[in-house]
Amino acid sequence: MSKKQIKKDRKKSNVLDINEDDYIQKKEVLTSFFLDKTYTPMTQKQIMNILGVPNIDKPFLELILDEIELEGIIFLDESKRYVLCSKKNVVKCVFETKSQGYGFGIIDNDDDIYISVANSMGAMNKDVILVKILEEAETGRKKEGKVIKIIKRNVTKVVGRYIDNKNFGFVVPIDGKINDIYIPKKYTKGLKNDIFVEVEIIKYATSNSKAEGKIVKVIGNGKESNIEVKALYRAYNLDYLENFNELVMNELENIPSIVTESEKVGRVDKTNENMYTIDGDDAKDLDDAVCVKRIGNDKYLLSVCIADVSHYVKGGTALDNEAIARGTSIYIPGTVIPMLPKKLSNGICSLNEGVERLALGIDMVIDNTGEVIESTVYKAVIKSKKQMTYDKVYKVIMKEDKDVLNEYKEYQKDIFLMRELALILMDKRHKDGSINFDIPETKVILNENGDVVDIAPYNITIANKIIEEFMLVANMTIAEKFFFLELPFIYRIHEQPDEGKLHELNEILSNYHKKIKGIKNIHPKTLSDIIDSIEDEEEKQIISNSVLRALKLAKYSNECLRTFWTFC
Q1: pLDDT of 295 strictly over 60
Q2: DSSP of 521-555, one letter per residue?
Q3: 205-235: pLDDT as tens digits
Q4: Which of 2.40.30.60, 3.50.50.60, 2.40.50.700, 3.40.50.300 would CATH assign to domain 157-241?
Q5: Residue 493 burial (CB < 10 Å; 0-12/13-18/19+)?
Q6: CA pair distance 543, 218, nearest whole angstrom
Q7: Is the pLDDT of residue 461 over 90?
């Protein structure tokens, strides 16, 4: 029964009232009751007696008790008594499972607790759980816990491949973090082997048994083209994003497909500049373009332009609301669910070769040490001279492939100038302490039918680094400009690492005869130098991964942290 239903049905009360403010107040009173030092575990009946709650208010009391339990303040133990979590070393977590079955209880403060399969109580990924912290952890480094209660299930349906086994069936979920779902024989009639289905869980797993379910929807045959993508969409509730709503489509009709003369007014004309986009071979939406010129013998002029999406997507419109709801484009090998309709993402907001586009730009004068000594921000009209690819730019730099060298003949001088400046910027960042993790990347290879045929290493070359360095220096220059202007801005920041994580890292480093000194005020260059000092590539990869895990995730903030770790 919902809070709204309870309030509607209720006629009178001495403790809890249908008024929302009174309801919140009574919840606060009950919470304070539990947090009082004199509180001892009690049953619901005992709580009602002490607080004088009449039977008519019982549904309200139960609702509030459930809310307080979900907040991780109390839990109902096996004796049906409400126990204060803090007194029993119990914490509320979100369960994050691994494909092997074990998992971690993630706490709000970014801390986590190791939970073995035996101690998981059958919890599924993203379940809200109560975990009792054990005295000793098997790992010796991380707290270990045991799930004592699952207070909220967040997985009710699962998408996967159905496997028939004569007397029963089971579904192998697309999400590798979820174990197989057992399908009883009575729910298998008419189902064919190797189809993709959606399963509703009717019985959750325990430490000793699998979850059970029934098929509620057949998505398609396992042999259908792109069936895995279709199933993936369904598994993550993405299928409804394949199309845009009518309001968005109506607004699109008023957006031009080409830049009009009136839109150019007040913008810097960059249409005659040697602007280039450099992206992957299969890129369709081209967001940024760059241009490099030499100034005298010791300076460079770097221009970085990004598509001016804000000109076409105005605040408060259906387009804007839909973009906010989607948050980002979702890239799946061979396809994409765009944040904006293709008329924008692949059309007027894509810096396509040879056509005029509106952009936001920054010009930076950079000396031969990589220092930005002057910068200007502006609105522009640009025309990309060439849509380049990382692979072909790399072949030009390495002077490989005659066909590519011939295709890029008139652009080679600009490419080598871009390389020259990128190496200067890279060297400056390294001297400033930027950490190069150099962690290998992979690329999914598809055939003509969209089927996965291979997962191959993806080599990051100097061509990728050119764009990476130019985007980094542009972002930092823009951030610094807004910081000193004291204007509202969103910064991407890195906070100082936790000392505990650094001590754990030191234990790992000791195996390689390395050690971090000055943990309290560690500079990123200290970690960078450690990684650079490792000669063996396999060991370097291990150290890089360990260092990465010791650092805090980057996040966005309206405050700029002027520390070693965040270069504004």
Answers
A1: yes
A2: G--HHHHHHHHHH--SHHHHHHHHHHHHHHSPPPE
A3: 887 788 999 999 999 887 777 788 888 888 8
A4: 2.40.50.700
A5: buried
A6: 46
A7: yes
